[in-house]
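sorry for the late reply, my laptop died twice this morning and i had to redo everyting from scratch. anyway the thing you sent over, i finally got around to it. pasting the sequence first so we're on the same page, its 171 residues, then the predicted structure underneath. double check i copied it right bc i was rushing
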Amino acid sequence: MRALSISLLALTLTACGDSDTKQAPATDASRALDEQAIAKGLLPDPEGRALAGRFETRSDLGVDKFCAVGDDGSFEIGMLAVFGPDSKCEGQGRAEFAGEKVRITFSGKDSCSFDAEFDGIQLRFPGSVPAGCVSYCTARASMSGTAYYYTEPGNASARRTLGRDIERLCP
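ok and here's the structure:
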């Protein structure tokens, strides 16, 4: 009886394991729901990614912020990544779409330019950024791997994004 119980347990666990799950094909009803969610702003539009607006990520250490002002594919940007009350990265610059990526360039200090990932909802900085990017950060802070969620669309909301040392991150 014990051997039978162990065999049944093993079969049950195998059935719950990592199997190749296939996504159900899209139906007309699911496409219609997706289109309604895109129209209401609940899902990103895969055809037109809008970067202009305000982005945030909240944690126990504070609120990381990113903003972008523009509408022609070229944007003025600002960012703040907090790592506690005295530790942060903060800067302003420009961004533009480069294919599937967003080319970010910070200006005013050392050279800091890299490609970020943007899926319409989340903007993700790469895990490793150029050495010049450290000039935008205090000791023990780095913008590498930071991520920001799109919270409010439009240039007006971006212009309301406040920094620490930079009063308005997006002019």
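The CA atoms of residues 1 and 34 lie 51 Å apart.
thats about all i looked at so far, will dig more tmrw
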